[in-house]
């Protein structure tokens, strides 16, 4: 039997063979990477960018409020002294301007909220005493005015928010963790006790307002980080419990919810969503979560692209969220970061062709 010698494989034929072998693998690899990128992009929804540094000294444990499209940051602690200076942030100019000093004793752990025309700051701790005094700030005149003392017990580490030009203050610590809530009416200068927060007492929780309702979660009591989450209706003064901020169900949606819990976090609201960021459970953090009140569902967003921190302040202006100040150990911050909730940050895998 005659055998013909094997035909040599040309470089061209060899390349075709390699292509036939590797191309399906490359396509599969590409699809897998695209899938990973899609998942990453979903997790990375939202974009952080650095703005003009807060112009006061670096600090933690300050308070912030907004009035008429501008934000105000006041009080705090710089590692040596408690502070009472007030700074106004204009987002249009990306500029800070110092305003009249807070007239009360310098403090930390206070609360602040703003109405359409005025800002309010009170409670806190001056280094020896828990406080209940309260003050009103008028940006039109740059004048602070004492108002009726907070009608609850003197405390620090409370939460506050405003709805329809009324202020709400509750929880905190007065030698014991608290869950009582109080409404302040600027028209009458009267504090009225309302329905207490449901669930656990707490210190160093967070609060935000979405679509005319208040939300409170987080905080600590009895050495335990609270995982219950509550919605407040100002029309009825009733609280309704929402889904817990922990891995509570048998489903996968809340597997990572435990990173929402903690203390010394910050919160703000944009476009019908509430946001909780930074802080942590015995540590500093950068994580960011967005809450959809319609679906009662949380979604993780792009983490703060700055140093991890606790005890910062946050506010929202013109559909942008902002975080500034805070500390990490003995290091105190003065950087300012803006957050665009609808910006998508995508990191695409690069694939080299033939």
Task: Output the number of helix runs.
Answer: 1
What is the domain total for the residues? 1
Order of helices and strands: HEEEEEEEEEEEEEEEEEEEEEEEEEEEE
- The N- to C-terminal Cα distance equals 43 Å
CATH fold name, please?
A: Neuraminidase
How helix-rich are the residues, as a percent range? under 10%
Mean pLDDT across all residues, rounded?
A: 88
- Can you tell me the CATH superfamily? Kelch-type beta propeller
Radius of gyration: 26 Å
Number of strands: 28
Query: Proportion of β residues?
Result: 35-45%
CATH C-level class is Mainly Beta
Strand order of the largest sheet: 1-28-25-24
Low-confidence stretches: 1-41, 345-354
Categorize the overall geometry. Answer: globular
Biggest beta sheet summary: 4 strands, antiparallel
Structural class label: mainly beta
